[in-house]
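As a warm-up, study this chain.
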Amino acid sequence: MSKPYDRAYFDKWYRSQRHRVGSRAQLARKAALAVHLAEYYLARPIRNVLDVGCGEAPWRAALKRLRPDIEYQGLDSSEYAVRRYGRTRNIGLATFGQLGELRFDTRFDLIVCSDMLHYVPAPEVRRGLAGFADLLEGVAFIEVFTSRDRVDGDTHGYIARSPAWYRAAFVEAGLLPCGSHAYLAPRLMRSVAALESL
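Now compare it with the structure written out below.
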């Protein structure tokens, strides 16, 4: 049985004082890290972001505080989130695996995929990552936890893959790790010094 990403799910894991794991301040720091890394490597302000598995789009507000004019596109498989916030927060209905085929009018300066990939089956992860080379102009912030990490929060459906599994999948997709959950687009690799990558 698939896990429902309905209002009750988001109420519990994002709003409940008892169950919520992250804070607004923590999200603001992650957003600032992702934006500044992307701008450092692109050598210009970022213009757009694709937020994959965005849920109710909490990243949108954090990113808009940093860059008010940024173009935000969210994607999520939750029919509830898209029905409730799709129009006002620009969230489209899509699974991670569909990134292998989905294309937009432009590449994205920043792709965010925060705290969701460890719930996605391996074939779908690989299928979705295959699209990153075409979708990504700058930096992908892929926050994912592994079998070596202590996990707080929602463990229902959590898939504890090894760090080596993810590293191999990201390399296969053409992504270059540069630390702190950040990965560079293939087109940026020529301008990266040897010690900037892991």
